[in-house]
Amino acid sequence: MTQPVPPRTSAHKPYLDAIRATLQAAFCIENFESQVVERHNKPEVEVKSSKQLLLNPVTISRNQNERILIEGSVNSVRISIGVKQADDLEKILCKRLMRFMMQRADDFHILRRKPIPEYDISFLITNFHAETMYKHRLVDFIIYFLEEIDKEISEMKLAEDGIFKFHPSLMAVSYLGFMFQAINIFSVDNTSRSSSISKRKQILIHSLFQVGSIICSIIAFTAIYLRKEQGNKSHFTSWHGLIGLTVFIWSLLQSTGGLLLTILQRYIRSLGLTHAKLRIYHATSGVLLFTMSCFVIVLGLASNWFKTKMPDGKIIYSGIFYLLTSKTIVGASSGMATEIINHMKSFPSGYLVAYLISLNFYQHFVDFLEEEEARTTCSRCIAEFDAGKLPI
């Protein structure tokens, strides 16, 4: 309540001036005891016991989506705000922000827990609030809220459409593009690969694909990290973030191990280690790494950002899971890992995969992710509120 009101922009000035003048007139409220029950004082704007105690409601509209409804009475004022929502992304951001605020309505004394229909948020100010708070500061707060809520949603939207967009695209290119081709170059079932390619050329092509994968993943990881820093948000708070960090570090170690395996062959032999066995370990680790990377991508498909861009993602879920367990991917490993791959090749024909590619599994899986995401978001928002980082 003690924060100074920032200067208003010229575009909003007439709209905010009209709201300020109306609120100053509507805040002429006083104590009014109930005429039905002795020593009871109810907000007449809510109970509406008599039309004589109510003032005519005033709607101030800047456009079709941005408006405010001010309902006055003898002892209370109800203020309902419709926030500007130009597209689906702004609607989702506004809904999440309002849901967070309403969960804290017990601490936010003038906030109405449930908004009026067709409006996004409502405030209820009674004569008790007017007796303990300065009326002009209440008016300043409403004006400040109107300015900041629009600014906050705009900044959140810019964050969603800014540097963050490089994260999902480059991660998909890194793992589903470069890493897949790097593994597939050694596939014994790869009919697109010419049989005249020597083993040395295969290793060179594999290395080039892996370099491209590492470069894309580093850029994508940097993009999401910078975006979190710009928004002052915690890092690695979701399953997607935690497992994604594990896969990212794993991929760096995997590439380092493959590089050392290639350039230190003589030193490995001098240590008494079998080069063929180390290649089997490297190939098996690569297949498991690719499997985990596909799982991380599926976790990303359940995020709110992806739902905003593609509301019906069941086909994408099916494609990713089928790609994850398909015979092409399972067979895309070094020929020296034949025993392990033969066991894995039987996996796609089992009943488990038939269940994985069913829509019922995806529905349960996405519901679980949404519940976990809601818990994480709620806990993070409460921590930010307690730390004084409330966006208003």
TrEMBL record:
It comes from Rotaria magnacalcarata. Belongs to the ARPC4 family. One of its GO terms (biological process) is actin filament polymerization. Residues 130-341 form the Cytochrome b561 domain. Gene3D superfamilies: 3.30.1460.20. This is Cytochrome b561 domain-containing protein. GO terms for cellular component: Arp2/3 protein complex; membrane. SMART domains: B561 (SM00665). The chain crosses the membrane at residues 203-226, 238-264, 285-303, 315-337. Pfam families: ARPC4, Cytochrom_B561. It comes from the Eukaryota. GO terms for molecular function: actin filament binding. The keyword Hydrolase does not apply. Keywords: Actin-binding, Cytoplasm, Cytoskeleton, Electron transport, Membrane, Transmembrane, Transmembrane helix, Transport. InterPro entries: ARPC2/4, ARPC4, Cyt_b561/ferric_Rdtase_TM.
